[in-house]
Structure formats: structure tokens, C-alpha cells
Design a protein that fits this description.
With 131 residues, the chain is α+β, with helices and mostly antiparallel strands. It is built from 4 helices and 5 strands, in the order αββαβαββα. The chain has a 5-stranded mixed β-sheet. It is globular, with a radius of gyration of 14 Å. The termini are far apart. Bound molecules: tetrahydrodeoxyuridine (THU). Tetrahydrodeoxyuridine (THU) binds next to α2.
């Protein structure tokens, strides 16, 4: 249910550790098992070491034993249409098909829904390596 994704994304966003950018992001991925996994961005004084909310959510999912994503939601600050960065599009691609719906949200709700294939056309994926 989309409301559950929004609620979890708000909680994750509220826990973001982003003292350098002050850009707080929450992400939720739904596994093929129906469970929701949330994550937030975690920055670091050594800037490149920080990680995105999507990476955190995907790590939680894989750690739980799930490797298929069927729906995703990214929540940025109010008023911003926060799209996944290029690296996170590729991270999602590893575990999802091009028709994956990605909801772009702010704390007030979903602003737009787009597919992974639209964000990352002609992507390189596991099948290129026979997986
Ligand atoms: N960020 C995410 O966590 N996900 C996105 O989709 C876009 C950007 C984070 C990374 C960094 O902590 C901050 O937002 C500013 O780039």
C-alpha cells in the first residue's frame, strides 16, 4: 500500500544523517516478498564515503534475503523533485526490471511516478554477465 511506503519514507528521511548537504532523503523499496525496506542518506566528513538513501534501502533488503524490487519510492525535501542519482539508478537496476515504478515524493506526497527504464534506458545489467 502506497501510504505505508510514504510513512516509512518519512521516518527514514527524518533519520537522514546529512550535516554537510542538509539534503535529507528517505527511500523505500518493496521486495517481491511484499516487504518494505527503508533507508536514508548517510554522509561522511570524507565526502565520497557517504551513501545515498537508495543504497541504504537496497542493503537492508539484500540483508533480509530478498533480491527483487517491485516498487520504489524516493523522498526528498519539500518542493524538490528528488530523482535517484545515476549511481542509484544502476543500483536499482541490479534488482529490478525496466518497468519498475519509482515514485518521486516529498513529505507532502507523491509528485510523479516514472519507470526505471525511463530513467536508465538501454541499461547494463546482470544479463550481460549471464546472470
Ligand atoms: N541523495 C540521496 O540519498 N538520494 C538521491 O536520490 C539523491 C541524493 C543524497 C546524497 C547526499 O547525501 C545528498 O542527497 C546530496 O546529494
Amino acid at each position: 500500500m502506497i501510504d505505508d511506503m510514504l510513512t516509512l519514507a518519512r521516518t527514514m528521511q527524518s533519520r537522514a544523517y546529512a550535516p554537510y548537504s542538509n539534503f535529507h532523503v528517505g527511500a523505500v523499496v518493496k521486495g517481491a516478498n511484499g516487504k518494505l525496506y527503508g533507508g536514508c542518506n548517510v554522509e561522511n566528513a570524507a565526502y565520497p564515503v557517504g551513501n545515498c538513501a537508495e543504497a541504504s534501502a537496497i542493503a537492508a533488503m539484500v540483508g533480509d534475503g530478498e533480491t527483487r524490487i517491485v516498487e520504489a519510492l524516493v523522498m526528498g525535501p519539500e518542493g524538490d523533485l528528488c530523482t535517484p542519482c545515476g549511481a542509484c539508478r544502476q543500483r536499482l537496476r541490479e534488482f529490478a526490471a525496466p518497468d519498475l515504478p519509482i515514485h518521486l515524493a516529498d513529505p507532502t506526497g507523491i509528485k510523479q511516478t516514472i519507470t526505471l527504464g525511463e530513467l536508465l534506458p538501454m541499461s547494463f545489467g546482470p544479463s550481460h554477465l549471464g546472470k
